[in-house]
Specification:
mainly alpha; elongated
Length: 252
């Protein structure tokens, strides 16, 4: 659940990006490119997280194998390109340093995201995070495309619906924004930001009385035997570390 909330709030929590994107991105799928969404080789994942993805690394405080966290996050993503918390941590480093390629990173931020969705196109969480990045670059149509693909995989996920509502609001497509807002709030999304935006724009209407609430999200990815819920819906990490709280946003 923490991974899902992290993905849902990234559009709100990060400051806008003000730089371009690098194009050099080798797409080589090798034995290191393991699928985080199904916990491929969970024992190795636990070892890597203990050695290279400590809470200090995730928070961007300092690394475990060096003084800077970028190298350790990069190592994690080299082995698990669609590791959602590692992708989010690298995005925070890029944002903090106003760069496309944080110190210690092997690739640009866009490259890490492109690799995640290219190697594992079935993973809706990776698409949600990539859409976050594109949204911050004002590439709204591209972000919507990715989120719609994620919505097809998890059609009842209120987090995806909320972010789609925000993106359609940015395009001033208030009708679609309202539809997704109703879907998000019917599914239990807790923050009023989108509703407040629509109210301010004079576009908010209450959902029709008696409209059915979305059913629980249907798993789009088969979990491994060691996982009791779909990774995209719950994503429990093998390690015992607790993900950092997502920064609050006044737009929530």
């Amino acid at each position: 659940m923490k991974d899902r909330l992290l993905c849902a709030l990234l559009l709100l929590a990060l400051t806008p990006l003000a730089w371009g994107m690098e194009e050099d991105c080798p797409m080589v799928k090798g034995p290191k490119n393991r699928d985080y969404s199904v916990r491929e080789d969970a024992q190795l994942l636990a070892i890597i997280e203990r050695a290279h993805f400590s809470s200090d690394v995730e928070l961007g405080i300092h690394g475990t194998s060096g003084t800077m966290p970028g190298g350790d996050i990069a190592y994690t993503l080299e082995n698990y390109p669609n590791h959602p918390r590692a992708l989010a941590a690298m995005m925070r480093l890029a944002d903090r340093g106003h760069t496309t390629k944080p110190y210690g990173a092997k690739y640009s931020m866009q490259c890490y995201l492109e690799r995640a969705v290219t190697f594992f196109p079935h993973d809706p969480t990776a698409k949600m995070i990539y859409a976050t990045y594109l949204g911050k670059l004002n590439k709204t149509d591209e972000a919507i495309k990715l989120l719609k693909e994620a919505d097809e995989a998890l059609p009842n996920d209120p987090n995806i619906a909320y972010n789609l509502g925000l993106l359609f609001f940015t395009k001033k497509d208030y009708a679609q924004s309202l539809d997704y807002a109703h879907k998000a709030y019917a599914g239990g999304f807790p923050f009023p930001g989108l509703r407040d935006k629509l109210k301010k724009a004079g576009a908010w209407k209450e959902a029709p009385e008696g409209a059915p609430a979305p059913a629980p999200a249907t798993p789009a990815i088969s979990a491994t035997p060691a996982t009791s819920a779909a990774p995209a819906a719950q994503a429990p990490a093998p390690s015992t570390q607790t993900p950092p709280a997502v920064p609050a946003s006044p737009e929530r």
